[in-house]
């Protein structure tokens, strides 16, 4: 059984990743270290926004910055984080067809006892 501290740490990691732009940044950094201007060009978002999200990721220990002359090169602290994000993207893509068809897949299996009392009495 996982230790409660592990749950807390996982929650902090997932909160740090809870932004489409931060997910995109982690995906890019999973392919290799990048400077802010490279992320700005690749993701086509303003530099202050990229810097703001990098601060969040750095504060959560997801990325680190290493000075390279006048620039800071960002990289993942652990490549495993890129795999977590890739799995989340893949899983989210698997549930897309049901949503596009106007149906939302149930979040949990239906339970026989979940029917209203009137429906069970029949």
TrEMBL record:
<feature type="region of interest" description="Disordered">
    <location>
        <begin position="89"/>
        <end position="122"/>
    </location>
</feature>
<keyword id="KW-0805">Transcription regulation</keyword>
<feature type="domain" description="HTH arsR-type">
    <location>
        <begin position="2"/>
        <end position="96"/>
    </location>
</feature>
<dbReference type="Pfam" id="PF01022">
    <property type="entry name" value="HTH_5"/>
</dbReference>
<dbReference type="InterPro" id="IPR001845">
    <property type="entry name" value="HTH_ArsR_DNA-bd_dom"/>
</dbReference>
<dbReference type="InterPro" id="IPR036390">
    <property type="entry name" value="WH_DNA-bd_sf"/>
</dbReference>
<dbReference type="GO" id="GO:0003677">
    <property type="term" value="F:DNA binding"/>
</dbReference>
<keyword id="KW-0804">Transcription</keyword>
<protein>
    <submittedName>
        <fullName>Transcriptional regulator</fullName>
    </submittedName>
</protein>
<keyword id="KW-0238">DNA-binding</keyword>
<dbReference type="GO" id="GO:0003700">
    <property type="term" value="F:DNA-binding transcription factor activity"/>
</dbReference>
<dbReference type="InterPro" id="IPR036388">
    <property type="entry name" value="WH-like_DNA-bd_sf"/>
</dbReference>
<dbReference type="InterPro" id="IPR011991">
    <property type="entry name" value="ArsR-like_HTH"/>
</dbReference>
<dbReference type="InterPro" id="IPR051011">
    <property type="entry name" value="Metal_resp_trans_reg"/>
</dbReference>
């Amino acid at each position: 059984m996982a230790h409660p501290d592990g749950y807390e740490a996982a929650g902090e990691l997932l909160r740090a990743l809870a932004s489409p732009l931060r997910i995109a940044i982690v995906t890019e950094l999973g392919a290799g270290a990048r400077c802010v201007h490279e992320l700005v060009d690749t993701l086509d978002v303003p530099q202050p926004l990229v810097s703001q999200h990098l601060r969040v990721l750095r504060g959560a220990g997801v990325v680190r910055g290493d000075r390279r002359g006048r620039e800071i090169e960002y990289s993942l602290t652990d490549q495993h984080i890129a795999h977590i994000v890739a799995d989340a993207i893949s899983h989210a893509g698997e549930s897309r067809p049901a949503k596009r068809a106007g149906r939302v897949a149930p979040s949990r299996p239906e339970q026989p006892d979940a029917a209203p009392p009137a429906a069970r009495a029949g």
